[in-house]
Amino acid sequence: MMSNYNPFSLEGKTILVTGASSGIGKATAIECSKLGAKVIAMARNKERLEETMSELSGEGHKMFLCDLTDSKAMAEMVSQLPVIHGLVNNAGIVESRPVNFIKEERLKSILQINTIAPIMLLKNLLKEKKILNRSSIVFTSSIAGIGYVSLGNSMYATSKGAISTFIAGAAKELGNKNIRVNAVCPGMVETELINTGALTTEQLDKDKAMYPLKRYGQPNEIAWAVIYLLSNASNWVTGINLVIDGGITLI
Ligand code: NDP
């Protein structure tokens, strides 16, 4: 067997990762670079994005600062991008509120970044012919997006549920170009996103104990699933929601 045999290699691929300044996006950018990809890292915070850049392996990576809720800024960024072989539509936020306390403006704001921005980014990239045939698109949804919703999380679940169904339509439409569209659905992952102060350490520990694997996930563990979907190892996989959750959704 050849020693360099690796169907998960990203050698020769350029991958755009949104939300690359933190958490899952940062881990994905770093792991993609270790597997040979040229990474285009995107987020708003310059300092933290530069930190990600300094941790990438290999050469030829680029960074773009962009607020994805600003459609003009997004269009401008897209026009400056090289063609890509992969898109990791990952930037997102969480906001918990009981249904009684939902405000239209807060609902619009979470939908804007979690739902509208990733869909419009894909649309703009396609329109500008920046996505090569045979590319792979990966959205970061959530187990909330496939119906596993914790108390107070209905707005977030709505924003991710839309993504988890959008991918089915997009996968069908783009299949004739051999462009694959999938989502990963993580359970709780140890990133800044879950440190909102909404839950005490004791509550978090109790929650972790509910997981069959007795812990939350690490950003790398989601990155590796994203890499499977980006790589040729998943060439016949499209339109799926890949659950990575330490078993919490098992009934
Ligand atoms: P982090 O808060 O660690 O990272 C979020 C990233 O999104 C940051 O890089 C941030 O960059 C970027 N971002 C947020 N708003 C914008 C914006 N308006 N424009 C551009 N970039 C933006 O969170 P995670 O890594 O945990 O989350 C990543 C994805 O994973 C999200 O979609 C989240 O919903 C999903 N997810 C997370 C889970 C978890 O338990 N952590 C579980 C399931 C899904 P900057 O601030 O620099 O702009």
Q: Sheet with the most strands?
A: 7 strands, parallel
User: What is the total number of structural domains?
Assistant: 1
* Helix count, DSSP H or I runs of 4 or more residues: 7
Query: What pattern of helices and strands is seen along the backbone?
Result: EHEHEHEHEHEHHE
**Strand tally, please?**
7
Please name the CATH topology: Rossmann fold
Oligomer: single chain
The 3D shape can be described as globular
Q: Point out poorly predicted stretches.
A: none
Mean pLDDT: 97
Unique bound compounds: NADPH dihydro-nicotinamide-adenine-dinucleotide phosphate
CATH class category: Alpha Beta
Summarize the structure.
The chain has one domain: NAD(P)-binding Rossmann-like Domain (Rossmann fold). 39% of the residues lie in helices and 17% in strands.
Report on this model:
The chain has 251 residues and is an alpha/beta fold. The protein contains seven helices and seven strands, in the order βαβαβαβαβαβααβ. α1 crosses α7 and α3 runs parallel beside α4. The longest helix is centred in the middle third of the chain and has 24 residues. NADPH dihydro-nicotinamide-adenine-dinucleotide phosphate binds next to α1. The site of NADPH dihydro-nicotinamide-adenine-dinucleotide phosphate has 29 residues, from α1.
Please describe the topology of this protein.
Elements: E1 14-18, H1 23-34, E2 38-43, H2 46-54, E3 62-65, H3 71-80, E4 84-89, H4 104-127, E5 131-140, H5 154-174, E6 180-186, H6 201-210, H7 219-230, E7 241-244
Parallel strand pairs: 1-2, 1-4, 2-3, 4-5, 5-6, 6-7
Helix pairs in contact: 1-7, 3-4, 4-5
This protein binds NADPH dihydro-nicotinamide-adenine-dinucleotide phosphate.
